[in-house]
Each structure stands twice: as C-alpha cells, then as structure tokens.
Amino acid sequence: MSKAKFNVAMIGSGFIANVHSNAFRQVGHFFDIPYNICCKVICGRNRAKLEKTGFRWGWSELETDWQRVVARNDIDAVDIAVPNALHSAIAIAAAEAGKIVLCEKPLASSLEEAEKMTKAVRRIPNAVWFNYRRIPAVVLAKQLITEGRIGQAFHYRALYLNQSGNDPSKGNTWRYKRSEAGMGAAGDLLSHSLDLALYLNGAIRDLSAMMHTFAPHRDVDDATLLLSRFANGSIGTFEASRYGVGCQNRNTFEVNGSKGMLGFALDDMNQLDFFDATEPANLQAGRRIAVTGLDHPYGKNFWKPGHVLGYEHPFIATLGDFLNSIAQQEPFHANFEDALVVQRVLHAVERSSASRAWVNVDEIPTQPTIKR
Ligand code: SOE
C-alpha cells in the first residue's frame, strides 16, 4: 500500500538539527508509520553548516529564509531547531500557515512567548522534543510509579550537569546570551529535569530557587538550584549546572517513596534501579533492571533483547509516537501545553531567585522576563 507523503521542513542546521534529521531518516525503519517521510527542505543562516547538515542527511533543498519555508504549500510539518528566542515567531507563523509544528526545548525564551505559541497551535498537531521521556528505562519508571510500586512519594531528586560552561571556546555561542537563549543552564538543562519530574511525579506547587553565574560578564545562569513542593505532597531538589566539571551529560533522577525507590542515570540509560521496600526486610536489596527486553517499553521497536540503545533512539521514538498520534488523531505528549507548564516553572524559578523568596508556580503573573 503506498503511504501518504509527509513533507518535512527543518529550521536549523546545528547539533540538534543533526539528531532530528537522523530521527526523520530512521523512524520508518523502527515504527510502523502510515507516512512516507520526505526530508524536503532544511533552512539555516550559516551557509557552511546548512550545506554540511543538508548534504549529510540528504535534505532535498537548502533555504536561508524561514518565512519562505513556512509559506510553502508543499510542506506538512515544520521542525524548529534554532536558538530559543527564535522559536515563537517561527512556531506562530507555521501554525497560522496550518503546518504541523515540532519544537525543541525549552519552548520559548519567556513565559509570555510560550503562552502565545501554545495558543497559536491549539488546533494543530504539535510536539516538543523532550526526548528523555521516551527512554525505555524512564517509561518503565513511569509504569512502576503508576502501578503504585513506590507508594506515596516522599522525595524527588534531580541533577543535570555538564561542563560546557567552563569551556572558554563555548562561552560566546547563542546558548550563553540572554538575547538568544532567554536563560542559561535553567532553559537548557533544568527544563529537561522539570519535564521528567512533572511527567513522573506530577505538578510542582511552589519553589525556592537560586540562579548563579560563574563567568564574569555573562548574562545568563551557569547554574540553577531549587527546592520545591509537589502537589502530591513530596518535596524536590533540583540542580542544573554547566560547571559540573567531570560530568559530560549527567542527567539523573531518584524517587523515594513509602514502598520503594527508583533511580535513573543517563550515563547508564539502559538501566533502571529499583528498590522494593515491600519485600521481607532480610531480602531487601536494590536491583538494576536492564530495560532492553521484549516486554519493556519500545522493546519491539528497536533491537533484540540485551542490545542497548543510545542518545538518538528516544528522538526516533518521539517522532514515531507523534506521527502515529496524528494518524490516529490521538493526543500526544510532550506537546506545547506540557512545555508551557515547564516554562511556567522556569518563570517561577527566575522570580524566586530575583526576590530570594518562595514562589507559588500558579500564582505568578506573566510579566515579561525580569532583570536579575
Ligand atoms: C546541552 O549541552 C545539550 O545539548 C542540551 O541542549 C540538550 O537538550 C540535551 O539533550 C543534551 O545536552
């Protein structure tokens, strides 16, 4: 049966555009999708990067003007993989042109923009690339929590550390400029930890945060730490830093509950630690589950049991699930609404750090970003 053509436009040609391009190329090999994905046009400001990424992944056309791309009537979906401050203009224009919209995280460089974007896409399929939600070990953690295997949650603990901030060669890129990124480690790393916490442990009610910059003259946070209270009664600690020297991409979470504990580390992404406190005391011990079996999440999509996955596979799973949700007209997560909740928490983080006070996430006005 010939599949419907699905023409994709990618806005962006940097690191994450390569990861997304791989997902568009690979998704049909691992997921039964009713579409014939066509990597139609890639768009970027930097010609050399555009050609390199475009040719590497076999994009049919190169373009330097995103407005021309979203106006085309032969494009079904627009994928936004550019600096955060550009997300809103592109997403709103693509939505108004009736395109399906995928966007990198964080959704926007301010809460105000994120609200406008979410309003613009409310009638069209939309997705945000919170890729870590679809790591099989993370999906298994969600299943165990939903089944009540850890009981009432007491603590949620998250870390996201890398060492890019301490690298002078990196200091001048868009990620370190407020005008292009909106935030630093908070937008780039903490947003991932918050999305996972909201997915696994539910809503955050209030928080107290500290944003800190180590590099002189830098106008974004290098590190952000926060304490939080969740609606389910548990308490949380989060630390995100680009000065985690010794950590290349350390993304971890732990949950302690009345019946047990769960632990995950991206460094060991195919494993999940589970402690069952309902076992007889003399038999209790932590176990490390290899989440690569046929009965595990996505166990039938990728390789045979015991064959491990890498950083790129959750992106392929995100796309596979999104395309099938479009075909079946079913809701998809993480979408713009989910990312808006993350943006609201990030906004509360910024306000709490500036006021050095606890902030209730749902009571904060959507004022424009405040000066720290
Ligand atoms: C930061 O270095 C980064 O590339 C993030 O931007 C990504 O979102 C994360 O997945 C890996 O680290």
Computed over alpha carbons, the radius of gyration is 21 Å
Main β-sheet, spatial strand arrangement: 14-13-12-11-7-10-9-8-15
Structural class: alpha/beta
What characterizes the major β-sheet?
9 strands, mixed
**Rounded mean pLDDT score:** 96
Terminal CA distance reads: 58 Å
Beta-strand residue percentage: 15-25%
Shape: globular
Structure in words:
This protein has 372 residues and is α/β, with parallel strands linked by helices. The chain contains 10 helices and 15 strands. Strands 14-13-12-11-7-10-9-8-15 form a 9-stranded mixed beta sheet. Strands 3-2-1-4-5-6 form a 6-stranded parallel beta sheet, sandwiched between helices. Helix 1 links the parallel strand 1 and strand 2. Helix 1 packs across helix 9. The radius of gyration is 21 Å and the shape is globular. The mean pLDDT is 96. It binds alpha-L-sorbopyranose (SOE). The site of alpha-L-sorbopyranose has 4 residues, from loops. Alpha-L-sorbopyranose binds next to loops.
Describe the secondary structure blueprint for this structure.
Layout: E1 4-11, H1 15-30, E2 35-43, H2 47-56, E3 61-63, H3 66-71, E4 77-80, H4 87-96, E5 100-103, H5 111-120, E6 126-128, H6 136-146, E7 153-161, H7 178-181, H8 185-201, E8 204-212, E9 223-230, E10 235-241, E11 250-257, E12 260-265, E13 271-276, E14 287-290, H9 313-327, H10 336-355, E15 359-360
Parallel strand pairs: 1-2, 1-4, 2-3, 4-5, 5-6, 7-10
Antiparallel strand pairs: 7-11, 8-9, 8-15, 9-10, 11-12, 12-13, 13-14
Bound molecules: alpha-L-sorbopyranose.
Alpha-L-sorbopyranose binds at residues 162, 164, 188, 249.
